[in-house]
Amino acid sequence: MAEQESATTPMSKADSVENMTSINLDTATAVQSQASTEEKKMDYDNEAQKLEDKALVFLIKQSRPVMIPDFAKWFDINKIHEIEKKSLPEFFNETSRFKTEKAYKDTRNFIINTYRLSPFEYLTMTSVRRNIAMDISSIYKIFKFVEKWGLINYRIDPRSKSSIMGPSFTGHFKVLLDTPDGLKPHVPMASEVSKKRTRDDIEYLDSLTNNNLAIRKNIYDELQDFNSFKSADKSSTQIHRTFICHVCSNDSIDVYYHNLRLREANLCVNCYEINHFTDNFNKEDYVKLDINAQPDTNWSDQEVVLLLEGLEMYENDWDKIIKHIANNKTIEQCIEKYISLPIDDKDLKEFVRRMKAKQIAQNEKLDTKKTPLDDEKLRLITKTINSLKLSLEKNIDEKSARDDEKTNELIKESQPVIEELKNTALSKIDTEFKKLYELERKLKMSLDSYTKEHENLTNDRMMLSKQILSINKELSNSNVEKKIILTSSSSNGIQIKLLNKQNEINENKQKLEKLKATEIESISHSDIKKYAVVSL
After folding, report:
1. pLDDT tens readout for residues 463-501
2. Are 127 and 111 in contact (CB under 8 A)?
3. Helices 301-314 and 331-340, axial angle in degrees (round to 10)
4. Which residues, in sequence order, are CB contacts of 238 under 8 Å at separation 6+?
5. In the chain, which end has fewer C-beta atoms inside a 10 angstrom radius, N or C?
6. How many degrees, rounded to 5, is the angle at CA 530 between CA 524 and CA 531?
7. What is the DSSP letter of 361?
8. Which residues in the chain land under pLDDT 50?
9. DSSP H helical ranges for 152-268
10. Does the keyword Hydrolase apply (predicted)?
11. Which of 254, 324, 256, 327 minimizes the C-alpha distance to 292?
């Protein structure tokens, strides 16, 4: 048993040694693999940088200057400014996985670099949209933001901007209007067909079979049509109308043909001669009309006599006067003719003489009717007027005296109030002055204390400097190269430092050089003084 145990122990030791060596090998391989991965990472970055450097050789060289406005100097193509984040927040709040900071930067740089390839040509939104894989609204927002700040399309020649080109309007195309297929007349079917038809039935059926339906009815033409086709016994106040051809839509016509069966249908001369009629119409249905035709303004002697007879018979009833003339005359023509007729001056003179005689007779009647009673009435009226005037003046004087008394009483009542207000204002001013005096006294006390402390400090410093001088003498006597110096500063106050003699000599030299330089500059900048000659 002992032999077996002694045999097993060396075996276990060998196994343990092998295990330790295997663990050490594993750790070594792991360390080597980590080092190799790090070397690979470093190599990858270096390779990427090398590729970028190689790509720079093949880039297009800048041939034209790129200008941006002064207010856009904050822009840096390698960074994103706070102005961009505030203007387009949807790309920086991480709400959408498609709208990220990287996507915004790539799109912005692409737009700017595309423009900078040819900075004198206008960059359009369409050309940008065709080359970027992003939603149109995001591209539009970035494009407008960059264009607003002048990073693209700045100082562009307006002739280089794209525009919709097309032929100009000439107006020589003629359009024919036709009734749509859907708008057809509805003709009701008769329930019973009679063998015999009267004249009334035929006229009714003719009215139903009107195939010339208007697409749109203009209700505002009713009054104009009425005025243009009215009878002679009405007023002729014409409204200016423009007639449009129903076929070729020509509106510049003076002579036209009017349809007697359909009021809205008018034809121009060309369409009438070429026989461009609508359904179921022919030349007999049209009548020729002239827009510039004027009514007959010539008056015969018989018409003038009839006008005067009508005026005597009917006075102001012009409708009956026109009927009495029995001719194609309007109210305006009749009035104009009546005004232009000469009037005999003798009749006017006789009428004026009669009116003057009547006026004189009325005045004489009034004078003869006066009596002594009328004189008494006039006296009484004047007396009453005078008495009323005196009473009114007295009342006015009394009222003015009362008003003066009231104003005096009010002034007396208000005087003590004014005195109180004045006293309160003066008391406030006194209190303010007292406060100022107190502040002045405190200020003087603080100034006195400050001056005393300042004197104490100066005395202490003098004593300290004397002690330092005595110490420096003792040090020099004992052949010590170091020296004690007092330094003062606003932040640290007064301090004591030890310095070597060599350092002190160097500092003194530097100070002397600075003083010399300042003196030379002051002399060079100073004006040359001119001295007057003084005779002894």
Report:
1. 888 888 888 888 888 877 777 777 766 566 666 666 666
2. no
3. 100
4. 227, 228
5. C
6. 130
7. H
8. 1-14, 16-17, 20-21, 210-239, 527-536
9. 199-208, 222-228
10. no
11. 254
CA distances (Å), origin 406, targets 22, 397, 399, 414: 127, 14, 11, 12
For 292, residues 6+ apart whose C-beta sits below 8 A from its C-beta are 254
Would you say the CATH fold of 240-293 matches that of 70-160? no
Confirm if 74 and 81 have CB atoms less than 8 A apart: yes
Residue 101 identity (one-letter amino acid) = E
Question: Could you tell me how far CA 450 lies from the centroid of its own chain?
Answer: 64
Amino acid at residue number 164: I
Q: Give the whole-angstrom CA distance, residue 476 versus residue 482.
A: 8
Report the pLDDT value the prediction gives residue 513, as an integer from 0 to 100.
81
pLDDT of residue 177: 60
Cβ atoms of residues 135 and 167 within 8 Å:
no
Q: What is the CATH number of domain 240-293?
A: 3.30.60
Task: Give the DSSP per-residue string, 387-454.
Answer: HHHHHHHHHHHHHHHHHHHHHHHHHHHHHHHHHHHHHHHHHHHHHHHHHHHHHHHHHHHHHHHHHHHH
Backbone angles phi, psi at 210, to 5 degrees: -100, 100
Three-state secondary structure of 13-59: HHHHHHHHHHHHHHHHHHHHHHHHHHHHHHHHHHHHHHHHHHHHHHC
Cα-based distances in Å from 26 to 12, 30, 34: 21, 6, 12
Tokens for 243, please give them: 């007639």
Residue 429: both structure tokens together: 């001013």
Which residue, chain included where needed, has tokens 């003076």?
Answer: 254
Q: Are 152 and 115 in contact (CB under 8 A)?
A: yes
Q: Which CATH number fits domain 70-160: 1.10.10.10, 3.40.50.300, 2.60.120.580, 3.60.21.10?
A: 1.10.10.10
Q: How far is CA 424 from CA 178, 306, 398, 418, 429, in A?
A: 98, 102, 40, 10, 9
**How many CB atoms within 10 Å of residue 347?**
9
Torsion-angle region of 213 (φ positive above 0: left; ψ -120 to 50: alpha; else: beta): beta
The tokens of 479 are what?
């052949």
> pLDDT at position 307, please?
84
pLDDT of residue 434: 93
Q: Which CATH superfamily is domain 301-367 in?
A: Homeodomain-like (1.10.10.60)
What are the percentages of helix, strand and coil residues in the chain, rounded to 5?
Answer: 60, 5, 35
Give me 50's structure tokens.
């090398």
pTM for the structure as a whole:
0.27
Note the pLDDT of residue 273: 83
Show the tokens assigned to 134: 């992003």
| Residue 21 to residue 38: CA distance in whole angstroms | 26
